[in-house]
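step=encode ok
step=design start
structure_in=
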């Protein structure tokens, strides 16, 4: 069972109520946070995205009106072979222009993505943080 609630007051716009933060299973999420989202098939890796907006849409027709707009990342291993990245790594991701609306309940966990030109730069940015080993962008 998931425990969810909005943090703070929402603002009305375009028939929806937008929020800047929410809590899901004792973790607070804010606009701009990067997250893992559950895939449709359990055997597939989690999707990677960044929360662009969070809102209630009572008129969406979906069973769950609590939604997030997500800007997607794609793993390097799923891109064309000529795409150059930092490292040949399953943790390396590239930010896409694509966005999509998903129920908040699709979130698996918060993640930390480091923007870097090379792996050593990513490691330097991680020094002194309590974050797990990052996905790379």
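sequence_out=
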């Amino acid at each position: 069972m998931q425990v969810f609630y909005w943090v703070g007051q929402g603002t009305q716009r375009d028939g929806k109520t937008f929020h800047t933060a929410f809590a899901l299973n004792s973790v607070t999420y804010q606009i701009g946070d990067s997250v893992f989202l559950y895939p449709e098939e359990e055997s597939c890796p989690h999707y990677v995205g960044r929360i662009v907006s969070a809102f209630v849409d009572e008129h969406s027709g979906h069973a769950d009106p609590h939604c997030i707009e997500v800007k997607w990342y794609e793993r390097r291993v799923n891109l064309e072979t000529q795409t150059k990245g930092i490292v040949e790594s399953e943790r390396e991701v590239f930010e896409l222009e694509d966005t999509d609306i998903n129920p908040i309940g699709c979130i698996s966990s918060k993640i930390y993505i480091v923007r870097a030109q090379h792996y050593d730069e990513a490691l330097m940015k991680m020094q002194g943080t309590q974050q797990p080993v990052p996905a790379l962008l």
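step=design ok
step=annotate ok -> The chain has one domain: 4-136.
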